[in-house]
């Protein structure tokens, strides 16, 4: 007896075939009759056949699926052989898509219509994005390819096998949590690098600053400060980019906190929001002041998006910071936590942010943790201000100091208020 589940599976299979067939039919629309292995109707029929075979296999025999799949492979193979004799293109994308369409049709009729539909949409999307994917491969260089593979290695291979228990002094070193933080920071920098690659070269230095803030705002500050001395006429827009990159660091801190210990956001989001607001307003004002300069400023050179050695160094740094922060908290109280935040923030705000957030997750007061993270962010911002002043000099130093100085004043006022009340 046919029930609603049977109809759902068949309809889902038909939808999958139509979606994939629509993309393939459009892609091969210039081909004449008899020059295509499969079009929209054929894909719809293949998927529907998969749905029917899947339902029959449940009532007759499971061997019906591989037998039918073999028949589909035979028919598609014959079609490919006939077409390939008259063309030089030997790609088999359409043929593989047809086989996958059949299997998705079977899956849809086996009680997983939503999963099958999702697979069909992903398949059609991958097929439709062929030009962009090929363009991305053309732009990808060797270090970036290695970075992708290394990031996949530390995420999918290393992380799942690390023990989820505490080791070392006071058991503050949890290998899985520690490595997860490394993966998180690496992924953020990875996204920032490719955002610069995709957007920066077309949109200019300002948007480069926005996305570079996800990777390394300090590195961008150093690069643009040097460039400002070589291109004085572009110092205003360079200054705006530096302030924007530095400001992007603040929302990034919130993201790290939200991932590790979301409850800490209640004590941290107000000062971070104020600092971000002031920083973005300063960026807008500096960009307006920059006006429209003639020519095109050179873009800052991009570093590699990810290196395994860099990730390992960050893991060691993070472990040292976590042990030092816990030791100072135990023997020097809150002042010790603030001290290690100040010193760590001079070089890297991510490590101390993750360490303090982890301590908050283990019982550190939310107020103390928020102040410590704020101190680290202020220290890091001060370093970037110093780079612009002592390396960029001139007008760029004044503009960056005005923007980041306003941010530091707001942060200092909030910090003083929380210590007073």
Quick overview:
The protein has 421 residues and is mostly helical. It has helices at residues 4-27, 40-59, 64-84, 93-108, 113-128, 130-139, 142-158, 175-203, 205-215, 217-230, 235-260, 265-290, 308-345, 349-361, 366-392, 394-420.
Number of domains as seen in the coordinates:
2
Provide the low-confidence segments as ranges.
293-302
Biggest beta-sheet profile: none
Along the chain, the helix and strand elements come as: HHHHHHHHHHHHHHHH
Helix fraction, binned, reads over 70%
Q: Give the overall pLDDT as a whole number.
A: 76
* Helical stretch tally: 16
What is the radius of gyration computed over CA atoms, rounded to a whole number of angstroms?
A: 28 Å
Anisotropy-based shape: elongated
The assigned structural class equals: mainly alpha
Please render the helix and strand layout as text.
Elements: H1 4-27, H2 40-59, H3 64-84, H4 93-108, H5 113-128, H6 130-139, H7 142-158, H8 175-203, H9 205-215, H10 217-230, H11 235-260, H12 265-290, H13 308-345, H14 349-361, H15 366-392, H16 394-420
Helix pairs in contact: 1-2, 1-4, 1-5, 2-3, 2-4, 3-4, 4-5, 7-8, 8-9, 8-13, 9-11, 10-11, 10-15, 11-12, 11-14, 11-15, 11-16, 12-15, 12-16, 13-14, 13-15, 14-15, 15-16
């Amino acid at each position: 007896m046919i029930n609603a589940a049977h109809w759902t599976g068949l309809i889902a299979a038909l939808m999958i075939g139509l979606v994939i067939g629509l993309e393939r039919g459009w892609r091969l629309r210039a081909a004449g009759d008899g020059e295509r292995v499969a079009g929209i109707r054929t894909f719809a029929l293949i998927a529907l056949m998969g749905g029917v075979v899947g339902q029959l296999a449940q009532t007759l025999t499971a061997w019906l699926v591989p037998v039918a799949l073999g028949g589909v492979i035979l028919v598609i193979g014959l079609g490919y052989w006939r077409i390939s004799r008259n063309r030089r293109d030997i790609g088999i994308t359409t043929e593989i898509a047809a086989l996958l369409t059949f299997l998705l049709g079977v899956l849809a009729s086996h009680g997983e219509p939503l999963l099958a539909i999702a697979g069909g949409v992903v398949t059609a999307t991958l097929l439709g994005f062929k030009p962009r994917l090929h363009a991305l491969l053309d732009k990808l260089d060797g270090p970036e390819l290695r970075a992708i593979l290394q990031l996949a290695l530390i995420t999918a291979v290393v992380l799942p096998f690390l023990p989820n228990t505490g080791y070392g002094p006071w058991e503050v070193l949890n290998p899985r949590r520690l490595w997860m933080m490394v993966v998180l920071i690496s992924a953020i920098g990875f996204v920032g690098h490719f955002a610069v690659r995709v957007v920066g070269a077309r949109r200019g230095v300002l948007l480069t600053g926005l996305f570079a803030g996800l990777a390394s705002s300090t590195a961008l500050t150093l690069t643009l400060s040097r460039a400002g001395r070589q291109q004085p006429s572009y110092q205003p827009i360079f200054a705006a980019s530096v302030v924007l990159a530095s400001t992007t660091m603040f929302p990034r801190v919130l993201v790290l906190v939200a991932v590790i210990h979301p409850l800490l956001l209640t004590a941290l989001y107000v000062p971070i929001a104020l600092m971000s607001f002031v920083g973005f307003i300063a960026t807008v004002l500096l960009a307006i002041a920059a006006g429209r300069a003639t020519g095109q400023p050179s873009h800052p050179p991009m570093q590699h998006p990810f290196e395994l050695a860099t990730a390992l160094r960050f893991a060691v740094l993070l472990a040292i910071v976590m042990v030092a922060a816990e030791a100072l908290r135990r023997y020097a109280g809150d002042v010790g936590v603030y001290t290690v935040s100040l010193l760590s923030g001079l070089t890297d705000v991510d490590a101390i942010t993750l360490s303090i957030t982890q301590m908050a997750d283990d019982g550190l007061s939310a107020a103390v943790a928020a102040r410590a993270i704020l101190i680290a962010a202020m220290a890091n911002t001060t370093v970037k201000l110093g780079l612009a002043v002592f390396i960029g000099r001139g007008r760029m130093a004044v503009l960056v100091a005005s923007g980041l100085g306003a941010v530091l004043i707001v942060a200092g006022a909030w910090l003083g208020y929380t210590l007073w009340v």
